[in-house]
Amino acid sequence: xxxxxxxxxxxxxxxxxxxxxxxxxxxxxxxxxxxxxxxxxxxxxxxxxxxxxxxxxxxxxxxxxxxxxxxxxxxxxxxxxxxxxxxxxxxxxxxxxxxxxxxxxxxxxxxxxxxxxxxxxxxxxxxxxxxxxxxxxxxxxxxxxxxxxxxxxxxxxxxxxxxxxxxxxxxxxxxxxxxxxxxxxxxxxxxxxxxxxxxxxxxxxxxxxxxxxxxxxxxxxxxxxxxxxxxxxxxxxxxxxxxxxxxxxxxxxxxxxxxxxxxxxxxxxxxxxxxxxxxxxxxxxxxxxxxxxxxxxxxxxxxxxxxxxxxxxxxxxx
Length: 318
Fold this sequence. Notes:
By secondary structure, the protein is mainly α. It folds into three domains: 1-83 and 277-318, ATP synthase (C/AC39) subunit, domain 3 (Topoisomerase I, Chain A, domain 4, Orthogonal Bundle), CATH 1.10.132.50; 85-179; 185-275, Up-down Bundle (V-type ATP synthase subunit C fold), CATH 1.20.1690. Helices cover 69% and strands 0% of the residues. α12 (185-208) packs parallel to α13. The two termini are 30 Å apart. The model has no long low-confidence stretch (mean pLDDT 87).
């Protein structure tokens, strides 16, 4: 088995993920108590280095650092000179997300401190890389070009006025890479499902604002996506309520539930990969780690903003 060592390591690492009991205890804690609990556990190493941060901000930075550390480690463990590395392919989502942060910085939408706080430093987009890129428009545009393959001149011309178009193009380039011939069936099916979920999310956002959606579709639209493209927002919601109730749940009363539902559906689907063959368990572990980071963010935000417990219950991915 080509990846036996990586799979064995991941199975050991899996035991350190937060459990249902951990989440139950954390739901009873306040922000600072939750931060202390995380500091004494698997996030202690990151939190001990971030001495200038406190409370929710400290936890947020530590989550970013921990996720990036795991992604970088798994990429190195599974790297081969030939063939696609599905772990690297998936982990590049955070590299592309950092490219979007650089685009927002170039457009003047976020500050240097916002950039530093939001970056998930998956290689090669480390904090140092992003900080250096943000120093001038030319360097920033070249960094975005290096990550995405977009022409730096096109990026500079588009910003700041067409930030949405630049972000959409970055997303399309990432998801196009996901659909490009992954050999392992279970992972390939997961990527196809992920692309469909992103298309549904984007179409629903645009339909709500009565905007054209066809130019924002990633890859070849599925049958469901094709039906949504031909419908207005109300019709789209009715279609989803019938065919994807997991995505449509609660959207009529709170539109932002769509974002939560699509993300939750993706992460729940990934849990089956831990039982797969070859690299699938390694990939599955990375997605479960991503779900853990999402859950802790959710709990911290719920405590800091006094969100309803029902909201937490509906959106935890366990």
